[in-house]
């Protein structure tokens, strides 16, 4: 395909007009420019459509119409995507600085990889304080991939081949909370090879309307917890993926040896609770730490 972009990024939105501009700007402000942006709005009744219209000359494709939920919105966007690699972004979250450049470099340096994953940070919407900054393994050898192994994906910080999406099938639209987990399980069980990107790719905005918000005293309702437990059991039965105890232990030992466990501990002690006017300023600390390893 002539002039095919490297990345296709789909933003799904429904009545998050107050955050949507930040999400779009976080993509358009990336240092790597070989991407297309697609926005799927579920027929919002707030100012979302006006926000989209203000960026429409920079959006490859968009729609504003009723849909069947978040998974359906992602699939709708991916059906119009032409990039080599796909990813998604929720409308209330942000793509962190230099993410696309870091992922592009990792994928081009490792052409065997079918998908790539990075790290993410949770931040509180009210004051931009970091709630958590998990750090996954810096490296992922082949013996830690496949059936029985853990899948080191932190939030939806995954980028996978459009060709793989066409072979593997669409995001499961029956799932409301764990559609990402189900998809990563399918990728793993199908034998697609993953490469880790030592970069904080995704900023997860925590606010009271978040689907799975659990922070500062905000807890998931019993209904949500029960639904998530049901979805996890469904995923295990559908994909056949479960993690063997031996590989849990080996994975932890490997993380201690490669140093990523210590970075995760550092973040937990020194970064959680820190506040800055801009999330991007906070992120530079953890990006710098990982860049040394890179």
* CA(first)-CA(last) distance: 32 Å
Q: Considering the protein shown, what is the CATH homologous superfamily?
A: Spore Coat Polysaccharide Biosynthesis Protein SpsA, Chain A
Oligomer: single chain
Strand runs, count = 9
User: How do the SSEs run, as a string of H and E?
Assistant: EHEHEHEEHEEEHHEHHHH
Helix share bin:
25-40%
Count, helices: 10
> Main sheet, how many strands, which sense, barrel?
9 strands, mixed
Q: What can you tell me about this protein's structure?
A:
There is one protein chain. With 294 residues, this protein is α/β, with parallel strands linked by helices. It has one domain: Spore Coat Polysaccharide Biosynthesis Protein SpsA, Chain A. Helices cover 40% and strands 19% of the residues. The chain has ten helices and nine strands. Strands 1, 2, 3, 4, 5, 6, 7, 8 and 9 form a nine-stranded mixed sheet that branches. Helix 2 links the parallel strand 2 and strand 3. The two termini are 32 Å apart.
Topology (elements, then pairings):
Layout: E1 7-13, H1 17-28, E2 35-41, H2 48-54, E3 61-64, H3 70-79, E4 85-90, E5 94-95, H4 99-109, E6 115-124, E7 130-132, E8 158-161, H5 162-168, H6 179-189, E9 194-206, H7 222-239, H8 245-258, H9 260-271, H10 279-293
Parallel strand pairs: 1-2, 1-4, 2-3, 6-9
Antiparallel strand pairs: 4-8, 5-9, 6-7, 6-8
Question: How would you summarize what this structure contains?
Answer:
The protein is α/β, with parallel strands linked by helices and 294 residues long.
């Amino acid at each position: 395909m002539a002039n095919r972009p490297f990345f296709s990024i789909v933003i799904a939105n429904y009545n998050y007009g107050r955050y949507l501009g930040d999400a779009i700007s976080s993509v358009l402000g990336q240092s790597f420019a070989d991407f297309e942006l697609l926005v799927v709005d579920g027929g919002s009744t707030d100012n979302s459509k006006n926000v989209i219209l203000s960026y429409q000359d920079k959006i490859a494709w968009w729609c504003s119409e009723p849909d069947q939920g978040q998974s359906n919105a992602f699939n709708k966007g991916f059906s119009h995507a032409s990039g080599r690699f796909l990813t998604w972004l929720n409308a209330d979250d942000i793509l962190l600085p230099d993410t696309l450049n870091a992922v592009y470099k990792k994928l081009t340096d490792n052409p065997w990889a079918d998908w790539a994953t990075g790290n993410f940070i949770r931040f509180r919407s009210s004051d931009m304080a970091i709630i958590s900054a998990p750090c996954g393994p810096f490296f992922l050898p082949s013996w830690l991939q496949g059936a029985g192994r853990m899948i080191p994906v932190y939030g939806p910080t995954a980028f996978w081949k459009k060709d793989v999406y066409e072979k593997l099938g669409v995001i499961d639209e029956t799932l409301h909370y764990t559609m990402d987990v189900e998809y990563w399980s399918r990728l793993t069980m199908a034998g697609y090879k993953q490469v880790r990107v030592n970069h904080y790719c995704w900023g997860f905005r925590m606010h009271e309307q978040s689907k799975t918000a659990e922070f500062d005293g905000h807890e998931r309702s019993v209904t949500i917890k029960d639904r998530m437990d049901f979805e996890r059991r469904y995923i295990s039965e559908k994909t056949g993926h479960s993690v063997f105890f031996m590989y849990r232990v080996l994975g932890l030992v490997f993380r201690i040896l490669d140093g990523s466990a210590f970075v995760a501990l550092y973040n937990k002690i020194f970064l959680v609770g820190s506040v800055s006017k801009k999330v991007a300023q906070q992120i530079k600390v953890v990006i710098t730490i990982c860049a040394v390893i890179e």
